[in-house]
Amino acid sequence: MFYIAFFTLTLFSCGSEKTLDKNLSCEDDTACRTLTVGEETRTYFVYIPSSYDDNNATPLLINFHGFGGSAEDFANDIGGGSSNLNSFADAHNFIVVYPQGVERSKGDSEWDPGDNGATSIIDNDVFFVDKLIENISQEWNIDPLRIYASGYSNGGMMAYGLACNRADVFAAIGVMSGTMLIDEGCDLSLQTSIIIFHGVEDNVLPYNGDQNFQSLSAVIDYWLGHNDISSSTLESTLLNDGDILRDIYADNSRNLSITSYTVNNEYDKPGGHVWFTDDINNKHPNEILWEFLSAHRLDD
User: Fold this and answer.
1) Would the pLDDT of 175 be above 70?
2) How many CB atoms lie within 10 A of CB 240?
3) Which domains does the chain have, with CATH numbers?
4) CB atoms within 10 A of CB 9
């Protein structure tokens, strides 16, 4: 499990009250799906690329919204707009799923990245993801060797939780403006690769950490130890005239790596708490994200 810290902005809650999520009714939205296990129901939004062929196993990216977020809004804002993740799904032929978090004791939707062992899709988000993948695989031809997780803010915490608890399912994860919570029981027998984007002036999850949340460097140190990658493998590169610092730690013999992009400036402003969209070395961050994720398979 993860120890979940609270702070004045109350990013999320791990309360055990059983409540339902924001989007239980899909109405006429063909992108919206419901998942029911027993008497519990949750929703998610799915984007199927234009190049999808049911005869071919297709990669899956599960993308988690931040605290207080709506899966529908996240699918629209990150799937479209300046982020336009769905256009990259079309270009590279992968399915994107945007699941809805649960409203718990703090009264707003969130993700609890720890696996508490409960067989409840409301009380255990890791179990929910297990059932979500089963549900998606019943309707579409998913490649089980190429399933990935990404997330923004509290959704990034969820991605870390899946790297910690389900590295036998997720081939790699990506995190935008998120942090890993203090670990109490990561599965040390399994490793996974991680790509991270974090702004130096993130005022919600500070780059250098605070009394409640780990710094980016502490998170990287944890995963270097977890993945048994030497810190001496570090390759640092300044990009975008120094606006971006890219750090790569890798064990190429096992195709394992931890890559971070420190955003000093984006659009001429200090990197903040956002899903980044400004090009890095003439590539959209989503392109960089997908290139990294898709370079990894469970059978590496």
Assistant:
1) yes
2) 17
3) 16-294 (3.40.50.1820)
4) 11
